[in-house]
Each structure stands twice: as structure tokens, then as C-alpha cells.
Amino acid sequence: MGMNLGIDFSSLLQWxxxxxxxxxxxxKFAILVGGLLQLPPLLVWxxxxxxxxxxxxxxxxxxxxxxxxxxxxxxxxxxxxKLIFKEEVVPDGAHKVFYHLAxxxxxFPAFLVAxxxxxxxxxxxxxxxxxxxxxxxxVGFLFIFAISSLAVYGVSLAGWASNNKYSLMGSLRASAQMxxxxxxxxxxxxxxxxxxxxxxxxxxxxxxxxxxxxxxFAAPLSLxxxxxxxxxxxxxxxxxxxxxxxxxxxxxxxxxxxxxxxxFFLGEYVSMFVLSCLASTVFFGGWQVPFVSYDALVAMxxxxxxxxxxGILMLLLKASFFMWVYIWVRWTLPRFRxxxxxxxxxxxxxxxxxxxxxxxxxxxxVLRFK
Amino acid sequence: xxxxxxxxxxxxxxxxxxILLSSIMVVAARNPVTxxxxxVVDLFFVAALYAQLDAHFTAAIQVLVYAGAIVxxxxxxxxxLNLKPDALRGIxxxxxxALVLLITLAGFVIVGSELAHTAPDLTMPGNxxxxxxxxxxxNTYVVxxxxxxxxxxxxxxxxxxxxxxxxxxxxxxxKDKRVTKS
Lengths: 370, 182
Prior knowledge:
The complex is a heterodimer.
Chain A: H1 9-12, H2 17-37, H3 39-54, H4 75-85, H5 96-114, E1 123-125, E2 128-130, H6 140-148, H7 151-161, H8 165-196, H9 201-207, H10 215-218, H11 220-233, H12 245-248, H13 258-283, H14 294-301, H15 304-330, H16 338-369
Antiparallel strand pairs in A: 1-2
Chain B: H1 6-28, H2 32-52, H3 56-80, H4 95-118, H5 130-135, H6 139-150, H7 152-173, H8 177-181
């Protein structure tokens, strides 16, 4: 048909393990990114309606299509359009390159980390096994910590490049906080690694077959530390000192507006979602359905491929619980003072985290010795 | 494998090119913040190279420790130092440095050609190949077993050394109360 480019396309698209992996990766990544981009508008809407409920007021309920108001759901769409089409103002003294790069540094790690979460059991298509995480690694745990530790650069660069004292103060606070709480966050998950004996998130989920084998029963103290650090890592209330509006205007993103400001939002909400998914994966059985084992589900639905959507829904349900906790806590607890935050991190969370690791190791050693 | 055999090779050359480029920018940039950020990019792509060798554990630790922790402190210190804005633009370059670069490159070529004669056959998988590591129980297991059996003493001594350094830093940074009061 005139498509003679000297390449035999039929040989190029031979299905083997490598090409299946490549195509599956592209498709999964596209679906994940597309899905994650829908998160912030929805979450912003929830974050306005929930406090409205809590404070007995109405919240946004006007913007809709014609006579259907949809509880104001389209308010977020209007906000997004406004944010994108707003005039962009770059401060005079800003470092131009880093000013524009900082939001990228914020968004990129958040999306990359989302690739490592196992969203469901393996699919089997024409005999090829396709894991339902974008990349399945034997060190998924370490990958998540490694990449999420890069998010600090976005925050610190944004503050520094804006050439504004408030921004710099905000970014210094935020990065000090993120570094400090990364350590107890990592410590809180070491007992889980010890108990399940693997760094592969997929295997950790597969090990939590029955309800009482969930991580929350094996390591309840870890869950407590993890949830507290989760708030600090994403700079959310009660640890949102980086944007303490009373002292710092808006912290590290004071000088940002329009689409770049929205990018910071996107990064924050995506990392909230990822940490919620991680918490549900590690402590609440991931995609496992409580009280029904995977084999029973396969028998019930007929094929492992039908279990996959159930698993995805289950994980999203569990993750949305943590998202709800995020919003609930934000509108319940007042902000910490900075020195309180630091001493909580270093003098309370870190020792408890270390004790938790040592205690779990001793118990496991004794159990194995018997 | 035949159809897309060029993808890993292309990735290797792309990553190596980016490593070289960012390494040059680390020393060439006038602005220390630019240097630090290129150092992060550099370390990140070195980790990507490790990952391509199937050394996932090393890759993750590389990003976690170097890119995610150590360079953050560099960036911190640089940002707190108040730098003069005039001297910070453009790329640093001088004739003397170019000469040093030339000599280094010549040395690099000599060493490289010497190594090329004596290098072992890289096409054969050795006992550190990815298949061998997989057989032995995976990356993390192999690293942990070596570290906590054969290399336990060097590992422990290194950790004590680091602890000493931390204590020393705290002692130096600590405010002398008697001096500040008077």
C-alpha cells in the first residue's frame, strides 16, 4: 500500500515478553496519568463541601449545567479553567529557569511514585501475565522512598527562585519538615518489611490474604507513626507550616500563579493519593477484599481477569478513606508551632519508630527461634 | 526480543549522554544552585544506569541517599548563603581549565585503550550477572548477606565512624552558652 519504508512492520510487532511489556507499560502509564489528572478538581470540590458540612454552611453549590447543579461539582471545572487562562506574572528578581522548573520538580516525583503501587491482581491476557502496577519491582518500597525524597527540590527551588523572603522562609520550613519526617516514615515501614520478608509491594499485598493478616494487626504502632508522618510529608494541616498564611503569606508558592500554582496543587494532591494508596496497601490489604480470599473470588467470578476491577475498586475505596482522613483532620486540628513540629519529629516519632523496629525484630527472632 | 533490541541500547547511550552533560554542567555552571541541581540530575541518571544493569537495590539506594538526602543539604547551605546576583550568570570557562580538561581527556583515552586490551569478555555473564543474582535470591538478599557476613566489621566500623562525625558536628555547632551570655 505504498508504505514501503524498508522496515518489515510485521516483524516489528511480533508479540513476545518484551513487546508485551513495552505496550502494557505505555497503556498503564497513560491510564494512570489520565486518572491522576482528574484527582485535584474532585478533591478540591470535596475539600470545600466537607468543611461546609462540618461547619453547617452550604459550600460551593451553584456552578452546574443549566438547571442541574450537581451539588456544585462543576465549580472545580470553572476554577481549573480560570487557573489555566489567568495571566502569568513572573517576579522581576526571580531566577527564570528554576522558577519555571520548580513546579515540574514537584509534580514529576509524585507521578513517578504512583507507578510503583500495585492497583490490583495480575491480569492474564492471551497467556501473558500483566501486573496491575505500572512497573513491578522487587524493591518497590525503596523506589517509593527514593523518588518521593526528590520532591524536596521542587519546594526548596520554588522558594529560592521566587526571590521573596516569605517564599524562602516557607521553602526552608517545608524542606526541613519533609526531610525530618521522611526518617520516621521510613522507620514505620521497616517492621512491615521484616514481617512480610520482602520489599516487593505486590508480594506484601499477596501475603495479606485473610482479614487478620492485614498489616494493621501485625504492626499497629507503625500505622500510627505512618499516618502522622503522612500529613507532614505532604505539608498538610496540622503540619502546613510551609504555607502558614498568618506569617508567610502563602509560603513557598507565594509568587506563583495561574497554571504553575495549579501544578503545585496537582503535586500535593497526587502525593496525598499515593500515600493513601501506600497506607492501604501496606496496612489494609491493598486490593484484597476483606473476609473473601483471592481464590474464592476467582471461583466466584469465574476468571482472575474479573477479579482485577474488583481489586482496583477495593484499593480506591480504602485509599479514599485515608483521603477523607486528610480532609477531616485539616478542618479539625489547629496548626502546630514550628518548634513543636520539629521536636515531635525528632524527639518523639524517631525514638518510637526505632523502638518499634527493634521490638518487632526481637519478637520475630524469638518466634523464629521456637 | 529481536524487534525492539535497539531500545535498551538507545536508552544506555541517552542516559550516558545525559550523565556526561550534567557532569560538565556541575563544574561549568557559575551559580552554585545550578551546579547542585545538575548534580542531582547526574546522580539520578547514574541510578538509572544501575537500574539498567538490573541492580535495582543499588539504584534505589543511590537516589535515596545521594540525590534525596546529601545534595538536599548542599542546596540548603547554598540557599542560606547570600550570593551576589551579578557573578552568578552564564557558564564558567577559562583557558587554564580548558588545558587541564584536555590533559584529563588525553589521560582518559590512554587508560581506556589500555583497559580495552585487558578487559574481560563483557558478552559473557559473570557471577555478578543479573541471572546469577536472581538465582542467589535477588538483589537485596545478596547485598544484605555480603554486608552482614563477609563485610560485617568494615560495615560496623564505618557506621561508628559516621556516628562519631555526627557527634562532632553537633559539638561544633552547639552554642557556647557562657560566651553568649557575657
